[in-house]
């Protein structure tokens, strides 16, 4: 919208601009300065219109005081303007004027802000009680984030309830894509197991030019270390720790990457995900680091107990994008669920579907097995979200909680 105003104004200016041959350099410079001032005024007016829009919202999560500056202070000034108290341009600087207006705001809502603290007059300091009232009035309750403190290997689901036609988002520099789900826009993001722990800025941008900023703190997850065990039977088949790691990193992961890097904008599922087996017993933890003879590999999936020939179910609707027997992963099947979400099933005994086939949630897609590098019959199950492997069991639990009305 901002670009539209600027381009429209430039067109009007150029239509009324005298021919270049008739203008001196000084006159042209003067016209440029005049144009820049008029554009700045238009931008100011546009910002004011946006701040007065009913769509504007902000979650106040930190205390504020005099001499602070930045986006949080500017949001405070916009909220105070909406309250009919701040009648000046929002500068983002917490000066004496903002201090006095905060006091007025606190006194306006003294029963909720001041009385519980046994105060008779405003303090001008934005602390918990003041933030609570600001959030009640102007907070972004239409944005729900499944977890503000996810661990490495977790998934995040962001729900935005709005009539806007499109939503954009970022976690620091990483783009978050949204799709329409019933009355909400949904963004699903995978946190890498190797993501550096710390604080990250989450930004949700609305097409009207308004936005929401939140802070996400990614926590370190302690992954256990286990032995990369090779049985005598597997040694007879040519498996060694170094060959297993080499084959995974230089061959099989590269084959799968070509499949998993494909982003399909369509969403094939319309319900939460389910488990791939009737009975779920974890016998090989997600993320554990398997070491032996100086080599190591991280287990980016979960091993589930399954007798040879147990039915394996599609965890959701999708399209079978890969079926192949690999040396280490054994008989492998991948389902593309759309929007960069894939489920992977390894060490299978028998395929029950074909590549390119559309499958429904709960459909039998294979029988569990003991193929490839496998000590005993089981199902290795993984979930990928736009290239990031997440804890699949936690992901299923998350969708059952967040994607259910």
Overall number of structural domains: 4
- Low-pLDDT runs of 5+ residues are 1-20, 50-54
Structural class: alpha+beta
Largest sheet: 10 strands, antiparallel
The helix content, as a percent range, equals 25-40%
Mean pLDDT: 88
Rg, Cα atoms, Å? 28 Å
* CATH level-four homologous superfamily name of the largest domain: Glucose Permease (Domain IIA)
* CATH architecture identity of the largest domain: Distorted Sandwich
The shape is elongated
Strand content: 25-35%
CATH class group of the largest domain: Mainly Beta
CATH topology of the largest domain: the name is: Glucose Permease (Domain IIA)
Order of helices and strands: HHHHHHEEEEEEEEEHHEEEEEEEEEEEEH
Number of helices: 9
Number of strands: 21
Ends: how far apart? 34 Å
Structure notes:
With about 400 residues, this protein is an alpha+beta fold. The chain folds into 4 domains: about 50 residues; about 70 residues, no CATH class; about 80 residues, Immunoglobulin-like; about 180 residues, Glucose Permease (Domain IIA) (Distorted Sandwich). The chain is about 30% helix and about 25% strand. It is built from 9 helices and 21 strands. The strands form 4 sheets. Strands 10, 13, 14, 15, 16, 17, 18, 19, 20 and 21 form a 10-stranded antiparallel beta sheet that branches. The protein has a 4-stranded antiparallel beta sheet with strand order 1-2-6-5, covered by helices on one side. The two termini are about 35 Å apart.
